[in-house]
Amino acid sequence: MSNKEDGPTTIEGLVCPVPLTHNRKIVLGHGSGGKMSQDLISRLFLPRFDNPALRAGDDAGVVQTSEFDRLAISTDSHVVWPLFFAGGDIGRLAVCGTVNDVAMMGANPQYLTTGFILEEGVEMSVLERIVASMQAAAAEAGVQIIAGDTKVVQKGKADGVYINTTGVGIISPGISIGGACARPGDSVILSGPIGDHGIAVLCARGELGFNAEVLSDIAPLNHLVAAMIQSGKSSDPQNAIHVLRDPTRGGVATALNEIARQSKVAIVIKENSIPIRPAVAAACELLGLDALYIANEGKLLAIVKPEAVDRVLVTMRNSRYGEESVIIGQVQEAPQGRVLMETAIGSTRVVDVLAGEMLPRIC
Amino acid sequence: MSNKEDGPTTIEGLVCPVPLTHNRKIVLGHGSGGKMSQDLISRLFLPRFDNPALRAGDDAGVVQTSEFDRLAISTDSHVVWPLFFAGGDIGRLAVCGTVNDVAMMGANPQYLTTGFILEEGVEMSVLERIVASMQAAAAEAGVQIIAGDTKVVQKGKADGVYINTTGVGIISPGISIGGACARPGDSVILSGPIGDHGIAVLCARGELGFNAEVLSDIAPLNHLVAAMIQSGKSSDPQNAIHVLRDPTRGGVATALNEIARQSKVAIVIKENSIPIRPAVAAACELLGLDALYIANEGKLLAIVKPEAVDRVLVTMRNSRYGEESVIIGQVQEAPQGRVLMETAIGSTRVVDVLAGEMLPRIC
């Protein structure tokens, strides 16, 4: 490696497209889903692996496998710690996390693969519980786990169980949902209270110092999405739903920023409209956390055409996992790529993406 | 958990289909690709996740996504240690390993996803080298990496870099290749010398005590497979190639046993016909290893109709990564599910699957 701070970096005869002059080592923030993750993607992965599906920067890559089939494909490795917490576990998380990423492209998730990395010495009963939980979540989502792999590493070379899941879904003809499709005038819907997953995991770590009695919201959202698409269609055959995104790592703030940047629009949200359970708000207050940046695993953001928003909202409220849906904001033309929040006291502030790493290994 | 040694085990209200009475903890052998891996699959994963694609037990799951498209989907997590070794690295391994698993179903691999689990503190230059190697391997194979994910765990909770890749390939109409398709009378072709990958990795660990000058054989075999299928077609439109399998973890011995069991046939191989480089043979001798059980990452076994075998063999020998192809045996009716070897001294012995774990973290 060259030690120069600028100019292309030579790696074994290859020229690295962009010099990674800043972080010389991987830090926890590179896995945060926030600014440092985006940096790693844009400076390292994207220049090397560049292709239209990856460049789109959505929750899943969309490809056309034949004249007839469009697939959404997404992958996530799950390293949540601890493995079990109130409302869920790594198994339910691994299934739902990937099902949701596929569903956010308007696809119908059908197949999952699962890759386990196990630490030597893990109790078989722990693995049994996790696999049973995966089975239940897959049954609820209606997906099949069609391929798997298990690797075991020596004691001290992992932390119990890590699970990768990759999902494949089919996108029906005519559907066009993606992060770049938000348009000025659209409404922003949030499917329920935020921060539950992050606080439930922190609570299981004993980091709160008290029991917050918060359950993780982990849930498969594909049936909710299917109902939303159906209801959108009946009010407008031309794709009433423009964007879907699940605000996981980096939270609602980071997800909205990604959309604003991809769509080259501004998103304005109202602080008062964002639902947060009292126990979550109290835990955030205590720990100095902002719920807007906390990971959710059973919520989605939908950006919907104005003509369809009432109908879609009613459908969401009538669906499991969408009962507490609310409109939290609007899409505007400017300032492009920014998220603004009208605060409870009447001022407006910029909401940025997550910068470092707030809660490592939350998913 | 119940402590009973027999009867169904109750897990949080669910009944575990088969009591896992033997190993109460995960050991390295569960990741070997041999008998203990198969045990974990058949006792834990398969009863929970059961579906036709998974039950087939092939290198990739095959699904029909529409009237028109059949896909082969495969996943592998890579935990090889060390990350770099003669002839390859974890990046090339992660791309080729999954490309090959997809190709072994006769599919044309087109899309990969990649999930990184990084240990805090990994040098960015190490990750850059790995990603550059993945790019080169993907270009050689002609696949696109369309989705990715990066997680970072604390120092001491992983071992540098783990990489999951999942691959999706399209199976052309009329192709029917799978572990259950071997028929008595078929020939068994091996695409070249065995054991190179395993010995190259051991050498990089310094476990040999000398430099064996063996290069890992890691290579994408999809172009070789495409040429074989084309050549098989010209001699017989009805699927001249019955089975393809890459003998990775567990080696040639384990792969042939899987095929014999899936196809309910016997496979008889000739010890003299199996190519092994002198340096690999010497290293095996020294370490007391049997090359038949050592992982390969750029070799395949093909089980081919007698009428087509000459033509397929010529095609293989004219292809990159197939120049040293040889016929190593035949398929017979009995004894069902067994692999037999005619030894150099004229006797016949049973070749079983790998029992425990010979070389942990070889891939």
Describe, in short, the structure shown:
The first copy, chain A, is of the alpha+beta class and 363 residues long. The first copy, chain A, is built from nine helices and 16 strands. In chain A, the strands form four sheets. In chain A, strands 11-13-10-14-12-15-16 form a seven-stranded mixed β-sheet. A five-stranded mixed β-sheet of chain A has the order 3-4-9-7-8, with helices on one face. The first copy, chain A, has a two-stranded antiparallel sheet with strand order 1-2.
Q: Approximately what portion of the residues of chain A adopt beta-strand conformation?
A: 15-25%
Number of individual domains of chain A: 3
CATH superfamily of the largest domain in chain A: PurM-like C-terminal domain
Low-confidence sequence ranges of chain A: 1-21
**CATH overall fold name of the largest domain in chain A:** Phosphoribosyl-aminoimidazole Synthetase, Chain A, domain 2
Outline of chain A, from the CA principal axes? globular
Mean pLDDT of chain A: 91
Helix content of chain A: 25-40%
Radius of gyration of chain A: 20 Å
Number of helices, where a helix is a run of at least 4 consecutive DSSP H or I residues of chain A: 9
Biggest interface goes to: A-B, 89 and 89 residues
